[in-house]
């Protein structure tokens, strides 16, 4: 059996979550791995921007908080640390982890850096196919920040087999973080597609951290989750045949049952017979789940087919400017005053000839489901007393035009409806992403150890 746990499901996840995971794996006394998935499309783009401003940055901002409390126990217990926390700058992340090791008196670590995902300057996007999953997103129309391919698990596995104690990656497919250690431990053949699929399935169930142990699941009275403030992150106990039990550390909150596992199993799955990854096409149509005890669910039955011929790549580029501003109205006739604020800003934008797109939402009424045109808000009556927060959003290519529009919301204090207050406002550049499919021969995935030549 090989135990592998999740230490994070996104950038910004709970920083103390990995501690109970590592303690549980260490207590079993058989080594294992802990993986950190901290990379989203925009996270990577923001990392690229951070690296441009400071060559020592561009990796996961919470890296120290995540790693320092668990690194010594991982080293002592033979638990490999694997994470895409390298984001746009894996070498800098590796240096930061070695600095932590130095502070803890652990000495030099064998830290592997996975390379090959960065395709900026190496691919002609006009010769690639846009990924159809992006649907109605606008065409690329700004300066490109980065192009990163989703790598598979092979360089991670190779690094661990070469002795890595820590593996730092940039963009890899999320399940690859789990599949890599499993291939390294069990020696699975890459042509054994059912086992590669099983490892990919384990990675899919672990990749979002607590989403499979009751996180983003609780709905009081319908789906109750115990002790959600102390929710335990998942651990997979994987057998050599690829079957595994999902569980969590004893003494933690949350729950692992058929409902939580089914929700995560279907997460981001468009075709259950063909979930495309760089390593395999995963087929979950024959997967079976069994409640094997309290907070223990057995998973088996994954099938694998040949991996797709192209790799998905994220193209990050500068978009337009986004301005946001909010103001509150409360008490009798508050909804009517909130409406008046909206029409006032609309008229002011026209009167001043500001070339900005704009929308407004009254938070607490229909803001989550309304359109840019406010169709749902138009159907509400004005008799609603209460406490309303009006949120305005403005978009344009000119920072100055957006700033002018945002300033109009601040002017509502004295020029708008009665009783407005609590204005908050911001203007920032927007980063957009699109996905393209790139030929595999353009991607040269590999690894090297920190301190050696790449």
Largest sheet features: 10 strands, mixed
For the largest beta sheet, what order do the strands appear in spatially? 12-13-9-8-1-2-3-7-4-19
- How many β strands by DSSP? 19
* Distance, first to last CA: 33 Å
Mean pLDDT across residues: 94
Multimerization state: single chain
Q: What structural class should be given to the helix and strand makeup?
A: alpha+beta
For this entry, give a set of tags.
about 450 residues, alpha+beta, 10-stranded mixed sheet, 6-stranded antiparallel sheet, 19 strands, globular
Summarize the structure.
By secondary structure, the protein is α+β, with helices and mostly antiparallel strands. It has twelve helices and 19 strands.
Protein architecture, described:
This protein has 12 helices and 19 strands. The chain is of the alpha+beta class. The model has no long low-confidence stretch (mean pLDDT 94). The chain is globular. Strand 12 (288-293) and strand 13 (296-300) form a beta hairpin. The strands form 3 sheets. It has a 10-stranded mixed sheet with strand order 12-13-9-8-1-2-3-7-4-19, sandwiched between helices. Strands 5, 6, 15, 16, 17 and 18 form a 6-stranded antiparallel sheet that branches. The chain starts with a strand and ends in a 5-residue tail after the last strand. It is 30% helix and 28% strand.
